[in-house]
Amino acid sequence: MAQSEGRFRPVIKAVLFDLDGTLYDRDSLAATLIDEQYAAFAGELHGISRERFLGDVHAMDDHGHGEKETGYPKLVQTWGLHAALAARLLAHFWANFDRHCRLDADARPTLEELRRRGMKLGVVTNGPSAMQRHKLALLGLEHAFDTVVVSGEEGVRKPDEEIFRRALARCGVSAHEALFVGDHPLADIEGAHRAGLHAVWRFVPYWPAVVTNVPRIHALSEVLALAT
After folding, report:
1. Rounded to two decimals, what is the model's pTM?
2. DSSP 8-class letter at 199
3. What range defines the domain where residue 57 resides?
4. pLDDT per position as a tens digit, 180-223
5. For the purposes of burial, counting CB atoms within 10 Å of the CB of 155, is it exposed (0-12), middle (13-18) or buried (19 or more)?
6. Contact 198, 16 (CB under 8 A)
7. Nearest to 37 by CA among 126, 80, 130, 99
8. 11: helix, coil or strand?
């Protein structure tokens, strides 16, 4: 159930979403993919245990916020293994990402119901343009939104208020007429709040910051009760 500690103004005309960790379960994807990676490379890890490998790679990945292009080389160096392994681990990660990128079960029905209610819909996401748009295509959402605002195209990234303002302008709504749903306490919740939007926290247990004074949802469909 959604926990509402704040109160929205009565008319909501747009709902904007974060992408990774909000519209799909990015942590579940990473858990499966990194486990497969250990199985694929176990023979080349020379004594690095499964527990250490999984722990180190997940810490480096940082729920999708870590830079794998620099992270894998640092890990391989720390493990005392041949430097060439890093490029192969990185290539394996991205070669297998697509197979595991799946939309949350209630995401499409939620978006369809919001659209039926006449809401404008948008995505505001940090990351490279090609990668983030590719993810939307994998999820079957490339045509689901009125605007998709990607930091790699805009030259500004969450939590900067400007990226939220651009999304609002492209939807033709004011900040007080929009919800923003995201999982990251700083990039999503604080950023949206500072920009004047009504922030909704898609609860995840792993971020250390405690989000207060905003509604909390555990399933995406719970936003329907807030978008009135």
Report:
1. 0.90
2. E
3. 27-100
4. 999 999 999 999 999 999 999 999 887 766 667 899 999 999 99
5. exposed
6. no
7. 99
8. coil
DSSP assignment, residue 211?
A: P
Confidence of residue 102 (pLDDT cuts 50, 70, 90): very high
User: Which of 187, 211, 191 has the alpha carbon at shortest distance from 201?
Assistant: 211
Number of domains in the chain: 2
Q: What sign does the CA torsion over 152, 16, 140, 65 have? A: positive
Cα 90 to chain centroid, rounded: 20
Q: CA quadruple 96, 35, 126, 199: dihedral positive or negative?
A: positive
**What residues have CB less than 8 Å from 160, skipping those under 6 apart?**
191
Radius of gyration for the chain, computed over Cα atoms and rounded to the nearest angstrom? 19
For 91, list phi and psi in degrees, rounded to 5. -60, -40
Instruction: Let me know: does 164 contact 195? Beta carbons within 8 Å.
Output: yes
Q: Are residues 69 and 153 in the same domain?
A: no
Residue 167 CB coordination number (10 Å): 27
Give the CB-side neighbour count of residue 216, counting CA atoms within 13 A: 11
Over residues 142-161, mean pLDDT: 97
Judge if 186 and 148 occupy the same domain: yes
